[in-house]
User: Fold this.
Amino acid sequence: MSVDMTVIMAPKWDSREPACSTAYICQRLRSLGRTVQYLDYNIELYDLCRRLGMGDLWTDPVYHQGWVKGAFHFLAAFLDIDRIQGDVVGFSVTATNRDMSLLLARMVRERFPRKKIVFGGYALYYHTDLYGVSPGAVDAICMGEGEHTLRDVLDRDFKNLEEVPGLYLPDGDGWRLTVPRPLIQNLDEIAWPTFEEVDLGLYDVPDLPLMGSRGCIGRCVFCNDRHRTPGYRTRSASHQVDELQFLKERYGTQFFIYNDPLMNGSVKVLEEKADEILRRGLSVDYGGNLMAHRGMKPELFQKLRRSGLTVAIVGLESGCNETLGGMNKYHTEESAAEFLRNCHDAGMRVEINIIVGFPTETEEHFQATIRFIERNRNSIDCVVSVATFHVAYSDLWKRRGEFGIEMEDHGHTAEWRTRDGRNTLDIRLDRLNRFQSRMRELGLSLDRSDRAVEQKCPDVSGRFLKTYLDSLGEEGKLSAEERNRAPFIGRDIQGRLRRAALAKALGKVGVLDQAVWMKRTLARVLRGTGSGTQ
Assistant:
């Protein structure tokens, strides 16, 4: 059976809830009369690993760099690319699944040389993001919003793509952009996701992700989101509530998390949405990112809470006015404290984000942030994210000289220093550790910390394959289909070992000894399934 397009989410993506971006693409294609197949390889592989007792490969930050740097290539053997039905194959690329997406694209190219492969996603926007993406493995890359771009690509049957705005096309060994595509202005014309392509039962929580708006009204100097999606656009209140009501009735979902960069970019629409939820008597809970907006009256917080706004994630970043001014944040210490208090008094769970080590931050500024949190402890439930400052493409990137920032060409965004030596990675990591320690003392659990800290990923290939081998002899861990695929998986991994692809990906000292062990293990796997070895 052939379909117009297969959309793939490669590992690693979230294990808690499905991706919103791919759900938008799938529904957009369906609304245009296209047939679409969605292969959620990420959650399928997570489900297998979870049953084997290794779900922490997704949930423990220590493995983050392993996904980024390709330490889990051996897991590709457990992904059945023969299921791909689309003549066009699209990959949604994130920072953590980029390497696996590239590997799978090469596998698809080798197995199905006539299929067209398209990449897109947040991790592929600037021309510098395309480094390492070979035109031999990928035919085109969507820049930014993909709903209209993919429509045009399919309408043209993948021909004359030079005329399609918003596409990177092969140019020798590199890529060239056709022309930028104007952003979608009327978001109500884009069908919202129905998630019918997703097996929601495989995810850890029964929540669903939504997007009510795109872009941001803030002008933070460190943010590159507003360069990727300049301006602010919002769906109408009624359009958003129609979506909530549909998903609530279809799936019985109670909590919805909004992935908007800013949920209160339009206070007017946010209040209209609350009014409409209350008018319909719709029982839902929702949450998302909020700026400490000075234009929200105390009584509005109460109304929002009655409508179901239960979780407020506030981009505080700092509790020091000097640092906030350098960041060009909208709020001050005083207005942020009032905003947090209004959220708390309305009965919302208040979670904050913090950035440690902004270029102008001194030790005293850092201590001021800790004192701010201590003073406002009763209004805060959790520091949900803390990170050292990263220098990525942004207004600040263009002003590196003004901020005295020095870094190596193509260096990691975390590995920079100021010219005067007063702000280095070691100093930032020390502040991060002291901040985490103090937050634990205050009872503010840290769910996520700076992933740049965990540079070394433990090797798990041997442990995983041994666990997989043992599971073949146990009832209940693997399905009959999975057990039947064991010989094919074994031959796939053996082939990778023969080509030294796995050894190169792992990049480990002593990998030859490991490869010998894995071959012996796989030989046992194949003998145990009655298939023998090659």
